UniProtKB/TrEMBL annotation:
<dbReference type="GO" id="GO:0022857">
    <property type="term" value="F:transmembrane transporter activity"/>
</dbReference>
<dbReference type="InterPro" id="IPR018456">
    <property type="entry name" value="PTR2_symporter_CS"/>
</dbReference>
<dbReference type="GO" id="GO:0016020">
    <property type="term" value="C:membrane"/>
</dbReference>
<dbReference type="InterPro" id="IPR000109">
    <property type="entry name" value="POT_fam"/>
</dbReference>
<keyword id="KW-1133">Transmembrane helix</keyword>
<comment type="similarity">
    <text>Belongs to the major facilitator superfamily. Phosphate:H(+) symporter (TC 2.A.1.9) family.</text>
</comment>
<keyword id="KW-0472">Membrane</keyword>
<dbReference type="InterPro" id="IPR036259">
    <property type="entry name" value="MFS_trans_sf"/>
</dbReference>
<dbReference type="Pfam" id="PF00854">
    <property type="entry name" value="PTR2"/>
</dbReference>
<comment type="similarity">
    <text>Belongs to the major facilitator superfamily. Proton-dependent oligopeptide transporter (POT/PTR) (TC 2.A.17) family.</text>
</comment>
<protein>
    <submittedName>
        <fullName>Protein NRT1/ PTR FAMILY 1.2 isoform X2</fullName>
    </submittedName>
</protein>
<dbReference type="GO" id="GO:0006857">
    <property type="term" value="P:oligopeptide transport"/>
</dbReference>
<keyword id="KW-0812">Transmembrane</keyword>
Length: 508
């Protein structure tokens, strides 16, 4: 009896100790203790300067080099204008395609932070390698005078060093570009905020649902996982694929405007042959005329968002916003106008060059101000402001949130395809127009070539692309922003002037 009492007392003591331990553990994990552990919040506005600076520096290592890179290849590596431009097309194509690979790796494996980090390292290494080609004399062909002697071309090792620097910078862009925008957006992502949630997800035809239908019970394990993932997909995977396929026709309409925007060599040669002086002592470098595209883009965005839309909303008595597809179409139109104006200006410039006896002197300066090139750069900037931003917003609103990095890379993928097609167009124009001993439209001698015809060809192609865009936009039907506005208003009749953001309040 005494032994049993001792055992009961011991059991009671052990139970008491377990209860006390459980109570202490529960207290340490109570909701009141969590704020004391998480003393420092992460993300938010404090991270944005670092994200923006990193993105900007990567752009300097790619976009910032393109204008003057044409002169570098033509003079130091002694390439013709067609060869130099094609090499830049290939570089730009790789730079714009690899972000899609980076987006896949970030979304599926490493995460955005690591991919941005690795991308920054590769971009830095590529810039250093390109710098070395300019600093080390033996890294490029020896300098010589073409008018006096036959100059040696670059050796395979020198070409390899040059192309390697391009590839490293392209790999860096593949890590930085698709993730920075989405990574920055994550800093302000608050799931508990009802205004932060996606209003509506897009569901489509039932021409792909069969991929997620369980045909046989043996296709699924007891835990619900597919035995063969290639034969059976989840509903989410199928819907993601359908979302991607559905936007592809409209995505393809942005390729032509990217072809136009990638024509960097010809405006550079135009500016180099014209009077670039603002005053007697101040001269704008030929490679800096591309800044007018950025200036026009920035000014237009400010005017559009802060002046034009508020004024239109005040006149209409309700918020007025252009939808993403409307902006994409307007951008294509302005791009067509930019190519048309470029051809007109070049036609006038070439005529003056011939009158001044500069037909065989491409280095001569025409008595015509290079400021005449500003309108075509401004039109390109406005075109990019409408189309590029409209495309990016369109992909973000139409593709699922799980594909946010891929959505960010879609525009870059279009530019990659555009650069390859631009190379095909340029090579064909060069080969077809120099037959029978004729001078090529895109000759290295800008005064003997017919660059205006090349610009007008692009304008005609862009005009047909605008018609193609209208057909694709009509076939696409309503998009998320349209349906979101309809849900907010609770009305079946939906006007055409759509509110581009479903989060913007509407009048009753």
């Amino acid at each position: 009896m005494e032994k049993e009492m001792m055992e009961l007392s011991s059991d009671h003591h052990m139970t008491k100790m377990e209860e006390d331990h459980h109570h202490q553990l529960s207290s340490s994990l109570s909701p009141m203790a969590v704020p004391r552990i998480m003393t420092r919040s992460k993300g938010g506005l404090v991270t944005m300067p670092f994200i923006i600076a990193n993105e900007s520096l990567e752009k300097v290592a790619s976009y910032g080099l393109l204008p003057n890179m044409t002169f570098y290849l033509m003079k130091d590596y002694r390439m013709g204008v067609t060869t130099a431009q094609n090499l830049l097309f290939y570089w730009s194509s790789a730079t714009n395609f690899l972000p899609l690979v980076g987006a896949f790796i970030a979304d599926s494996y490493l995460g955005r932070f690591l991919v941005i980090g690795f991308g920054s390292i590769f971009s830095f290494l590529g810039a250093v390698l390109l710098w070395l080609t300019a600093m080390i004399p033996k890294a490029r062909p020896s300098p010589c005078d073409l008018s006096v002697q036959a100059c040696k071309s670059a050796t395979p090792a020198q070409y390899t060093l040059l192309v390697s620097s391009f590839m490293l910078m392209s790999i860096g862009a593949g890590g930085v570009r698709p993730c920075s925008l989405a990574f920055g957006a994550n800093q302000f992502d608050k799931p508990d905020n009802p205004n932060n949630k996606r209003v509506l997800e897009t569901f489509f035809n039932w021409f792909l649902n069969k991929a997620c239908i369980i045909k046989c019970p043996e296709d699924v394990k007891q835990d619900g996982v597919a035995v063969d993932p290639w034969n059976l997909r989840t509903v989410e995977q199928v819907e993601d694929l359908k979302s991607l396929i559905r936007v592809m026709p409209l995505w393809s309409t942005g390729i032509m405007i990217s072809i136009n925007l990638s024509q960097s060599s010809f405006p550079l040669l135009q500016a180099n042959s014209m009077n670039r002086h603002i005053t007697k002592s101040i001269e704008i470098p030929a490679g800096s005329f591309g800044m007018f595209t950025i200036i026009a883009l920035t000014i237009w965005l400010v005017l559009y968002d802060r002046a034009i839309l508020p004024l239109a909303s005040r006149i209409r008595g309700k918020p007025v916003r252009l939808g993403t597809r409307e902006r994409m179409g307007i951008g294509i139109f302005f791009s067509c106008m930019a190519m048309l104006i470029s051809g007109i200006i070049e036609h006038i410039r070439r005529g003056k060059a011939i009158k001044q006896g500069l037909l065989n002197n491409p280095e001569g300066v025409v008595a015509m101000s290079a400021m005449w090139l500003i309108p075509q750069h401004c039109l390109n900037g406005i075109a990019e402001a409408f189309n590029a931003i409209g495309q990016t917003e369109f992909y973000y609103s139409e593709l699922p949130k799980s594909m946010s990095s891929i959505a960010a890379a879609m525009f870059g993928l279009g530019m990659a395809v555009a650069n390859l097609l631009a190379s095909v167009i340029l090579s064909n124009v060069d080969n077809l127009t120099k037959r029978e001993g004729k001078e090529s439209w895109v000759s290295s001698n800008i005064n003997r070539g017919r660059y205006e015809n090349y610009y007008w060809l692009l304008a005609i192609m862009t005009g047909f692309n605008l018609l193609y865009f209208m057909v694709c936009s009509w076939a696409y039907g309503p998009c998320v922003e349209n349906m979101s506005k309809k849900m907010v208003e609770g009305d079946g009749d939906m006007p055409q002037e759509n509110v581009s953001s479903p989060l913007r309040p509407l009048p009753a």
